[in-house]
């Protein structure tokens, strides 16, 4: 059995004590991190390696940044999506323990119709094209990350308030749905089809956490070969109550490998 986690940590240096404590308690085999907000020389390699994790990262100063932590050797590392060399560290892919994994930080988009929103949709189009290529490899493939998309109204605390707003707009949801139409399975919804409050992110403002005003925007997407091995999927909310918590919480899935 292999346990994978994905977590937008919102600054690895700010949250390091939280991350280390969670890694000790949860002990996942593979962790996909987003928004590490650190370059390679700023990343806390020693502290995490002391917990017996290998590390691959695609860092960026102040913004973005993605990483993979693994208790197994990390091989065949790819930094960035093909044909998207814009200096933004949002995608890292590798082969671990016979499976291909990727940590993905989809752009937020700022506001519907803005230049950053257009960039987000273009990023998702490139991810779609790359996914088509990866699926031809006929292997166990796991995408994990902050997709900055709530796929349906079930994933939003107030669908009317969020109707056609950023993270919930039709083009964003269609882009997410396009990935599932290629054959990727949403690991959380596959096992929690109608569950409410399956949120992964709560705004720091407006007492959103205390009032459970959340959205599900962090996801695991699995190739058919991975979905066939899916044993469990869950949201771990324990870290959100901690001091200096990220506004996201980890999502976990277990595969029969």
Task: List descriptors.
257 residues, alpha+beta, Deoxyribonuclease I, Chain A, 14 strands, globular
Structural notes for this entry:
The protein is α+β, with helices and mostly antiparallel strands. It has one domain: Endonuclease/exonuclease/phosphatase (Deoxyribonuclease I, Chain A, 4-Layer Sandwich), CATH 3.60.10. It has 7 helices and 14 strands. It has helices at residues 16-26, 45-49, 115-135, 159-162, 170-181, 187-191, 224-227, and strands at 2-8, 30-34, 54-58, 66-70, 74-79, 91-96, 99-105, 141-146, 185-186, 201-202, 214-215, 218-222, 230-235, 251-255. Strands 3-4-2-1-14-13 form a 6-stranded mixed beta sheet. The protein has a 6-stranded mixed beta sheet with strand order 5-6-7-8-12-9. The chain has a two-stranded antiparallel ribbon with strand order 10-11. β1 (2-8), α1 (16-26) and β2 (30-34) form a beta-alpha-beta unit. α3 runs parallel beside α5 (170-181). The termini are close together.
